[in-house]
Every structure is written in structure tokens, then in C-alpha cells.
# Entry
Amino acid sequence: MDKKILEISDLKKKYNSKFCLDVNNLYAEKGKILTIIGPNGSGKSTLIRLINLLERPDEGKIYFNGHEITNGEVSQTEVRKKMAVVFQEPLLFNTSVYTNIIMGLTIRKIKLPRAKDRIDYFTDKLKITDLLNRSTKNLSGGEKQRVSLARALVLDPELLLLDEPLANIDQSSRESLRADLFGVLRGYGKSVVYITHDRNEAMVLADDIAVMDRGKILQFARKEEIFRKPVNEFIARFVGVETLVDGVILERKGNVCKIGLVVKKGNIEIYIVGQWEKGTRVTLAIRPEDVILYNTEISSEESSAMNLFKGKITEIRDIGIFKRVEIDCGFPLSSFVTQNSVNRLKLALGKEITAAVKASSIHMFKR
Amino acid sequence: MEIIWQGIKQAIILIFTGNREVYEILFLTLKVSGSAVFFSMLLGIPVGVLVGLNKFPLKKFIIAVINTGMGLPPVAAGLIVILFIWRSGMLGFLKLMYTPPAMVIAQVLIASPIIAGITLAAVQQIDPKLKQQVLSLGANRFQVYWILIREARLPALAAVMAGFGGIISEVGAVIMVGGNIKGETRVLTTAIVQMVRMGNFDMAIALVVILLAITFGVNFLLTLIQQKEGIGWIRRF
Amino acid sequence: MSKFRFLKIFLFFMLSVIIITTSVFAFSCKKKVKNTEIILATTTSTYDSGLLDELIPVFEEETTYKVKPIAVGTGEAIAMGERGEADVILVHSREEEDRFVEEGYGTERRDVMHNDFVIIGPEDDHSDISGLTAVEAYITISANEASFVSRGDDSGTNKKEIEIWEETGTTPQGDWYIESGQGMGETLRIADEKQAYTMTDRGTYLAQQNNLSLVVLVEGDEILFNPYRVIPVNPEKHKDININYEGAQAFVEFITGEKGQAIIKEFGVAEYGQPLFYPDVIK
# Structure
């Protein structure tokens, strides 16, 4: 049995005057959530429409369950009946909520009693049980999208395609919808392709991530790998690396490279685990959660970290459960710390501080 | 003024005492215009939906033809029908001239472009993404049309009523093809013309009252629907 | 490719709907194919007076025929006969009738009845035509440029009016000469509104008298004699069309026969105190 429910190879499709979708290799595994992440206009929605056979590719093939579906021999309708799509806009019909939810079942001629458990389960999970008899005209944006999600989920599709289902929802109802949707998807156990431009959503949900920009897949890997080892600056920035600095490999000893940073004043050297040759020009990515702060005035504990930087705090900002601390240590460096640490280390603007980063937690990629 | 009050009084008496001629004319009118609007629906709604939802060569041309048809003067429709159905015409052997079916055909010619045109505009108003949504739910071509017609059911209903209102109050075409034969092809409008010609104003006013009641009823319903976006039974449909 | 396939489906659909609709109609009319239907093209004056509503039911009861009276002007009724769109015509315009039969469109002319035309006008009769002959009256009206409403629709009445104008040697024109282009009933009403002179057949005038303020000013002149004749359409002229010649002949026999003539004689007496038409065969 093939593990891949969906596989795309060498797919090409011109999707606006500027860009051409060009996906060499992308697949979704059974029972896993593949998240495709990228900025607006990167071709994500076009990709969904191609998978759902709502558009024809210019070139290339899409396989579903090991069978090619783009050769025109299989019935488009039959293929679509194995999938379900939720679009950015809810796209409801002008009838009652209940009629909307069972619309797909009616179209697919699935007997309602057979789907009753699913209808009850998903309407409950999405908190729309009370709305069933209402007309869709008077629903809020968030409620509409809940109905649209339920309509897709009750179909029990082999592959669920979600095209930025939260993007068009206003801020106030987005958080609760996100929580309810992710609650459903966590225990879902079915194959999902989830499209978003929000890296936090990807971080929470995904098993695999594909990063897209301008019609191309820049990186496709397991979630951890994308966040740990972005292959270029675009992805690094996109997955939330705060600190990016350019440097050159000065020497290499075994697995560890010594890198000279390109900064305005003085020489800063950083040690990184890596195996590239001396002289390679690289960009370093340092995630704020990997930066540990010490106040040497309070304690002089030794650190196992190979890289220690001294610098002044230039900014402390609230970002939810964490504080983000900006330090100028010849280059700008960010760190996430808890409020507790801020108090304990007596962090304040202008304060001298030591930042430590392990050589193994810095990621570098060639410039 | 005297004659008007007299007429209205007589009209009420004629209506409520069940004057046979008045009711004969009323039923024939409803039968003719009712079946005309039924056939126009059968023709107009699918045409409107098919043209509105698909891309094909000559689409703009066909839309222009439909729009022209919407403004087709009834007498032109009457003349076109006459040219086909009179004895020496192509369909003369069917003996349709001066019969109710001839009136139905002429009215279909008037009403179906109206219904097609309004339906067409209505389905073009539907978000094209909704069609994609229907497709992605697994609908085949027929299901797509059916669901989108239902989505445009209010304007489609308005179209049907506009068509009905148009033909029930039309006189030029039906008098041409129907001949205004008493008891056979005499409908409300042609009867009114005839009664006025014969100086029978009581009857004429009675018939006008009935005609006004019907057109008012249709328009009232239409307004209700447009204002309320569907009264109960329509939403459930 | 697929685009054209759609167009084909579309056209096929349209065609099938049209064919189904037509065949439904054809079927629903099938039972009438037995040729019992007679189309009678006649003038608005006979029709609007209500005479035909009396005559036709009796005829239909006596025979198996079904009469469809189509009320048009004499000119159009004759044209319908020429095209074979009518089986029998009942009109009042001697010259036209003669031409119609001589050219072979009709098989025979049969006198049916007559009434007369009258010239009517406002009660004060400001041009003072009362008691004149028709020709004198027209000359006076024309000289005074008094408002006069003409049918102007090529009907029998209109033809008669033109005939009288020709006798006067003048051609009526100017703002005072109004052509209504409508039937006798509407023309009477227009004349009444404008307090103008006009010429009408007596039958229509009597039927409308209650709604009019105009009065009869000129009558009894020989030229105002208004005979109606019935002419069956010649089936030989329209071999490709199924003309109901037998039905037409039956109708002719009926309307010139005892029963028809009696109905004509009685018609209107009860309501107006005088007949609207005088039978010509059995007086």
C-alpha cells in the first residue's frame, strides 16, 4: 500500500501574468497533515484548484492514491468526490445551515442516516449545533466558515483540502475558530493539505511543510527540519528566525566551523556545527528561543555554549507569553525570555548582558 | 364621473354574481397566460442558466439576441407567429390560427426572452467561486445547474412573474393571432377592447378591475419576495 | 473542441424543446382536423353591433360547423379572402366586392341585408348641415373647415366616405379632417370628444347612442345606402390551402335563408325600438 495519498510531479501552470506555478515534487502522506505555507500570490490556491481538478495543469502530473488523475481518463467528478475543499471564503448556499451542511452528502448521494454520527460530531465540535435551522444570510463570517468546514468534514473525504480557512475571518472570531478547527484536526487522523500564510498555524498543525513563493516550492520537509534548517533567508524569515547575519567561514575543525561575521565594527567570531569549506560565504540564522541570557553581575555561571556575546539591551517588547529582548552585540540579536527571567535577571533597557548560543543551534545557509 | 361610478358598481355586481361571460374570459386568460408562462419557464430558465454559466463561442451574440427579445414589441411577436401559422404559412397545416394555442405561442415568444434574460443576469451575479464550490462538492454538470438555479431562485421567480405580468396585460399579439373570438380566444385584454368598442362600459370596467387585481397580486407578491428575500415557503424550497 | 460540443448540446436542447412544444400543440389540435371550422372575415360594424353573436350560435346548432368570426375592416377582410385566410367574407363595399369576385377570389355575391349610413354631429349643428344631402353636407363641412372624423382604415365605411368625397369634387385635407385609423366604436367616441361631424353606419350608432351626445343630421340619402353581402372564398384559387368551401356555402345558405333573415330582422328591435339591419332576401 502506497503511503502517499497525493503526489505531484513536474506540475506547471501559468496562474497570472507574472508567475508560473512550477512544482517539481510534492506529496502528502496518508493520515498526515501537509501544510503549504507562503505569502499571498505564491500560487498556493492555484495548487489546491489543480489538485481538485478545478483547473487543468499546463504540464505535469498529479497522482491520487497512486493513480494519475490529470490524464483526462478518469472522471473529474469521481476524483472530486474523494476530496473535500474548504475555500478562503465560506461560499454558502442561500438556504438553511443544515441544508448547507448536508449539501455535499446530497450531491454525493450518501444516505443521511449513514452520515448522522459525523454530522452530529462535527457540528458539535465546530459549535454550530444551535445554528442548524438558521438561514445562512444572517451568520457572521466566523459562523459561515464553521458551516463551510462542517460541510466538508461530514463528507469524510480521503483527502481534505483547506485553503486558508482562517484568512478571511475577522480577528475577533478567528482565535476561537482556530482553536475549534485545530481541535478537530488534531484527532482527525485523515490526510489533510492545509494552506496558510501564517507560520504559527503551520508550526502547530503540520507534519510536513512545503514553503512556496512565486509559484515555486522553496523547501519541502518535515516541520522540524523547516524550522531548524531553513534552506535560505526567505524561509528563515518566513518561519520566524529573528536574527540573520552574514559571515564567512574562516576555518573548519572537524564538525565545527569558525565564522567571521560581517559587521560594521570590530571582529565577531561565531562557532557553528557545519561542514562547509573555508571561505564559503554564509548567512547565519539564530532563533530567538535558542538565545540564552545571563546577567554576570548576579551570577557568573559557566555556560556550555561556545558562543558568548556581550551587548546592551535596546528593546524589550511584549509578545504574549514571552518577552522579546533585543540586544546590540555588534549585530542585532533577539531572545525570547519569560517575564520571570526578566525579573530575575533584572533586565532593563541599556543594561549590559551576556547572550549565549550553542554552536549546534545556529543554522547556516550559503549566500 | 357618473359613468365611472355606475361602471364600477356594475362591475362589482358582475364579478360577485358570477357572470358567466366574465368568468369564462377570466379562466381562458389564466389558462392561456398560465400555460404560456409555464412553457416560457421551461424554455427561458434553462437557456438563461446555460448561457449565463458557460463560456462558448457566440455567447455575446446569443446574449444580445436574448436582450433584443426582452424588448420585443408584442405586435412584432404576433406578426412573427402569424407568418408561420396562417394557412399559407409553414405551419398552416396545424390549423393554429385563431386558437388558444396560437396565443400561447405568441405569448411564449414574448415571455421566454424576458425570463431567459432575467435568469441569465441573475446567474451571472452568482459568485463564480460558488460554482467551483459546487463542483468541488462532487456535483456533475446537471447538479451544478440545478443547485445554481436554486441559488438564483428568487430572481428566477421574479423573472417568471415579470413574464406573466407582461403577457397577461398584453393585447396586440393575442388579438392578432387569436382574433378575439367570443368564448374561444377572447381574453381579458381583448375583451376590454371589444367591450369599449361596443359601448359596453360596465363589462369593460369589470374586466379592467379583474385584470388590475391580477397584475396587482402578481406585483405585490413580487415586491414581497424582493423585499423580504424569500418568505417561508420559498426558503424551504 | 469541448467549447463547440457545448454549443451543439445547447442548440440541440433548444430544438428539442421547440419541437416538443410544437408537437404538443399539434396533437392538441388534432381533433379539429375534420374540416368543421369556418373562418368568417367580417366588418367591425356587424361584429361590434352584436349581430353575429346572435347568428352564429344558431348556425352552429343547426350544422356541425364552428364559425370563427374575425372582425376587421372591409379592406382587410377582402385581403384575407384573397390570401385564403378566410373561408367566407361578409362585407359592405360594392366596388371591392365586384373586383373580388371578378378576379376569381370569390365564387358568388349574395345580398344579405342592408342598413344605412348617417352623418352625425354636435347637437347645435354649427355648420348647419341638417337636412342636406350627403354630398351637400360634406361640401358645407369642408367649406367651414368644421372638424370631421374619418375612419381612415380602408374599411367599408371609410370607402363609402371616400366615395362621397369624390362626388363633391374636393379632397378633404387640413387640421379639421381627422383620421382615427380605428374601428367605428372608437371613431364615434373621438368624434364625440371633439364634438366633430362623422359618418357611421346606423347600427353602431344605435348601439353606442347612450354613450354619445352626437345626433343624426343627415339620413335617408340614396348614396348612404349600406348593403352587406356575403361571398364564399374560391377554393380553386388556393389549392394548397384547405379552404372550407362547403362550410362557407352552408353559412351563406343560412344567413340568406329563412332563419338567418329572421334573426337579422328581429335584431335590435327590443333594445333600440328599430332594427339595426334590414334583411334583403326575405323581407
DSSP finds eleven helices and 20 strands in chain A.
